[in-house]
Amino acid sequence: MIGPEEESFRQAEFVALLKKNGDKVYNFAFRLSGNEQDAWDLFQETLMKAYSRFESYDRSRPFDSWLFKILQNIYLDERRRISRKPASSLDAPSPFPGKPWEEILAGTDLSPLDRFTKEENIDLVQKALADLPPLYRTAVILCDMEGLSYEAIAEVMSCPVGTVRSRVHQARQLLKKSFEDLSNTPKDRQLQ
Amino acid sequence: MTQEHEEESLLSALLDGELEGPERVRLQKHLSSCASCSLELESLRKVKTILAKAPQKSMPAEWTCDFPLAFPALKNAQKSPSRASIFSQNWLIPALVAAAVSFAVSFWVFQNRSLFPLRQSLSLNANIQTPTPTNASSALSPIISNNLNQPQDRTP
Ligand SMILES: [Zn+2]
């Protein structure tokens, strides 16, 4: 049992860490789940779980990575429960069997990817992310939106660094294809 | 073509500053003479830029305001080793009420700020149930409520 003083110290420490890292963790929840409502649920569940295990948090490691790990496990458990598919199905095969990107882009003045970059496509970024297999999505969000190193991502995802590299790359290839498809789709049909 | 293409994922590693030593030198040398890999690297860079430019979401302000309210729940959760026992504690009802109130407030604020006008049409993730908060109980997360029946212990 811990005394009230120790408990309030623990609370203060948790709140302080959360205030510093909460935005990053919430952003991860949003990008992973695809909408504010699920992000909010995921975020709250993560904090509940994190606080219940706060004693096991290694103070020498980054707090955000610790929360990322808890969050992604809750998310993947939930996905698996809903899809009732084995965990291995979360990794998808390579998206471009034998079709190089330059071939897809050939013959256009402004490439679809360039058009996508120039236009205001914030919601479409979220749509493209949502279409990724969860493990690819997690890796690329942590890399490109949260700015984590491959080593830190490997720690969060409990996998080798080589697997992170492969997932990040596969995710980018799939996103490239999605962005291209979306930028070629009439605006009124893009979000359907 | 002067030489074999390198493994494609090395391009992403180079882009992320995760490639060092001989591998990096070898890939850079290859890129200087391979137009298709250079083009691939450029398109990967554009994808990375699009993601990096996407706006960062902030933790809802409501959470920080409500944190003292939510904290009794967190405080008690800390004492319980598993989810099953967490949710059998007698603080559950006040905690759920606090969560429901905070969720309702944030949902109302979000609606009124028109932050998510496209939420319905987006349907970004068809596999995820999206609860509609019409009353206190429906404000509870499907994640939370489902885990009540399925205690999981995969996190560190
Ligand atoms: Zn090449």
Brief digest:
The complex is a heterodimer of chains A (192) and B (156). Chain A has 192 residues and is an all-alpha fold.
How does this model look, in words?
The complex is a heterodimer of chains A (192) and B (156). Chain A has 192 residues and is mainly α. Chain A folds into 2 domains: 1-83, Rna Polymerase Sigma Factor, Chain: A (Orthogonal Bundle); 115-192, Winged helix-like DNA-binding domain superfamily/Winged helix DNA-binding domain (Arc Repressor Mutant, subunit A), CATH 1.10.10. Chain A contains 9 helices and no strands. Chain A has helices at 4-33, 36-52, 63-83, 101-105, 112-118, 122-130, 134-145, 150-157, 161-183. In chain A, helix 2 crosses helix 3, helix 6 crosses helix 9 (161-183) and helix 8 (150-157) packs across helix 9 (161-183). Chain A is elongated and about 60 Å long. The model of chain A is unreliable at 85-90 and 92-109 (pLDDT under 50). With 156 residues, chain B is an all-alpha fold. Among the domains of chain B are: 9-53, no CATH class; 91-129. In chain B, 60% of the residues lie in helices and 0% in strands. Chain B has 8 helices and no strands. Chain B has helices at residues 9-15, 21-33, 35-53, 61-77, 83-86, 92-113, 119-122, 142-149. Chain B starts with 8 loop residues before the first helix and ends in a 7-residue tail after the last helix. Mean pLDDT of chain B is 62; it is low at 78-93 and 112-156. The interface between A and B is large, with 83 and 69 residues.
